[in-house]
Amino acid sequence: KGAANATDLQAYYNNGALTDTAVDSVDSAVEMVGKGTELPEADENGKIILTQDVVLSTMKTIGADTSIDLNGHEIAVAAGQKAVIKVDAGKLTLTDSVGTGKLTASTGVRVVAATGGDIDMTNVNIESDGASALYVQSSTSKVVVTGGTLTTTGYPAVFVHGNTTGDSTGSITFNGTTINSDMGPAIALNGKATVNVVGDNTKITGPVGIEVRNGSLNVSGGVITSNDPVPNVVASNNGPTARGGAGIVVSPYDNAGVDIKVSVTGLPMFASIQMQLLRLRVLGLLTRVTASIHLLLVLMTAAPRSDPNRTQTAYL
């Protein structure tokens, strides 16, 4: 911080004065000028309020109730970390009182991850590349995302891991959130968790909007859109399989114990939804997949009406 310009910064770097683990080159040091490397201390009300952009040198792990206001600033993390913020226990309350702040990560680094505890995000914008903006590996976590945007390239924006831990009492709720991905499903529900999509302003867009491989999906608002009209499925028993052609894809894992419930209710309009039921036998047993749809206008864009895979209610 003692350098006034890039020339002075070069001298600092050459002399070994820049020792922070987030600094691995002069270019990255120049980029960090005016940015912090750790979150500030909480104020008298227990809230952490950013006063500048922060590039964390290591992943921030939350183990107790924590409140963070981006206050129009950005939180990122050094390359090579597992996530920007990981919640192990307690509750993370994350807001942006200004509206121009965001969380970002280097390629392949998750942004917000839950392996326990709860998350409440309001008007928070998250951008990621090659890893999920929101990653959940706990079926007991209660995650509520209100407003804001989750945008990811090269990976699902929201990824619920297939090996979730806990008793499946948790839920992940999106209300008024815009979720975008350019590859596969924007939301990949792989584990025994419940995803709720509510609110008229919720928008989920990707080659596939949502893929359900295990767990429960409840949709009562918003618009889920496939922006790739060509159905495309990749055989896999490890992660998402759908690459295009549907707003919602139901693709059960080929494992015992898979329990899928899909409910789409109370919508005056729901764009580009196609229920595809793939690999319906699970280790010789029949998996029951139920989708109930009421007051629903279905825009069929990827297959003709006679397509037998276009199923609204199925007992398999």
Radius of gyration: 21 Å
Number of helices: 2
Strand order of the largest sheet: 1-4-7-10-13-16-19-22-27-31
The average pLDDT is 77
Residue stretches low in confidence (pLDDT < 50, at least 5 long) are: 1-6, 19-23, 268-316
Largest sheet: 10 strands, parallel
- How many DSSP-defined strands? 31
Portion of residues within helices = under 10%
Q: State the secondary-structure class.
A: mainly beta
- Envelope shape: globular
Question: Can you give a write-up of this model?
Answer:
There is one protein chain. By secondary structure, this protein is mainly β. Helix content is 5%, strand content 42%. The chain is built from two helices and 31 strands. A ten-stranded parallel sheet has the order 1-4-7-10-13-16-19-22-27-31, with no helix packed on it. A nine-stranded parallel sheet has the order 3-6-9-12-15-18-21-26-28, with no helix packed on it. Strands 2-5-8-11-14-17-20-23 form an eight-stranded parallel sheet, with no helix packed on it. The longest helix has 9 residues. The N and C termini lie far apart (64 Å).
